[in-house]
Design goal:
By secondary structure, this protein is α/β, with parallel strands linked by helices. Helix content is 37%, strand content 20%. The strands form 6 sheets. Strands 14-15-16-13-12-18-19 form a 7-stranded mixed beta sheet.
Amino acid sequence: MTNHYAKIDWSQKAASINFETRAFIGGDYQMPSHKGTDCQTFTTLNPATESELATYTDASSNLIDQAVAVARQAFHPWRQLAPDQRKTVLLAVANKIEAESETLALYDCLEMGMPISMALEQVEGAASFLRYNAELIDKCYGEIAPADATIMLALSQPEPRGVVGIISPWNFPLLTAILAIAPALAAGNTVVVKPSEQTPSSVLKLAEIATEAGLPPGVLNVLPGLGITAGAALAGHNDVDKLHFTGSTQVGRQLMVYAGQSNGKPVMLELGGKSPQIVFEDAANLSGLGKALAQAAFYNTGQICVAKTRLLVHENCKEHILAAIKAETQQAFCIGNPLDEQTTFGPIASRKQFDRINTYLNFGQQAGADLHTLTTAGDMPTSGHFIQPVLFDNANNDMRIAQEEIFGPVLSVISFKSDEEALQLANGVSYGLAASVWTKDLSRARRFARDLDAGEISICATTTPAAQPASLSVEPFGQSGHGVLAGRRGLEPYQRTKAVQIITD
């Protein structure tokens, strides 16, 4: 967090924040048009206090139709803008995001419970990612294909797909939305976003400030709504050309059905994870190891798809490593009010998720694993969905706590004896998002980087989502989804390739 924020009274600022509950379509907020009295509503809650924040009307299929039609109308003018013009607009939006960082961060802090210092980092990361994609616009182009040059010029050229539907999650509300919005817009598409019903406000605000920064009306549209209604309508819409979803594997599968039953649109999925961090004996005394292992598991209270919540540790150094994690957890995390800049460990985002985590704590104990509640700095709040980080020692890979995504601060510890066993354990789940390997042996590091079934491999390192290089492309394995995210190649899923043959003779 920069010094710019040092003297802000975040509680006072939060008290005056406005929650806009209308859909943003065609460059302005639109009142939902429902007939009758049977329309659904939903209310967002502050997970730190359990107090109500705002009540929204679920976006109807008619409103989805309107947003898609507006996006379709805006598509051709947007795609036809000169590349440097589109780049200039998106760079202006990135600057505007930074200018509105306090408000955007507060929305995510209040609705999701993300500590304000972390929320500010996510906003800065979102602006940076958008800026990177804007700079790609005039640097991605087609190719001249080999052909008989005496009679033909053969071209392969990328083009935008059209209208992109995006369904974004609640754990990093603004950042995860931007991870899809930025490349979609940079590639020349228009966008309709259905943010999570738990955390719609920062994405709604994004659409507003993007329009103020010069993004043409209709290019970015945002509709608050429920997944089972608005999300399903967007996924099954016949005039949406591509769908991007970030969320659970179960929902991702259902959205593929909706897409297939409609116009067969391609679906890009970033789904669940159960990522391992593998610690070999030769790395046991690396400086900062305990802190890195704790951060990888407990960052954002473990509510992150790439959380490394399986600790695979060589049996000869397990006790040393566990002691380091316990000590560093107390040093690195401070539980408390998310509006306090000292807080680094906030509440669980919802009562539903809080109950889910506690259910898995029971599963672990019933299976015979040893539960250890870890201590953090700060005072445990007496209200809200707060839970201390937990470590399960003596787990095994067959337990539900080791196989299923919990999405909370729960670390399962499994020991191994050999490199072969470590690799088997690491790959012994259905997911494949990320993994980290801690070893001083370069040959072993390269071998594991090759053989691990995961899209993102860290060697003797761990990074937070906001710190992930925007230039680094990644694609998940297994039931963690498919489609390239970020980097230059992250633009490609939002484009289609057209072959052009020009007869010259």
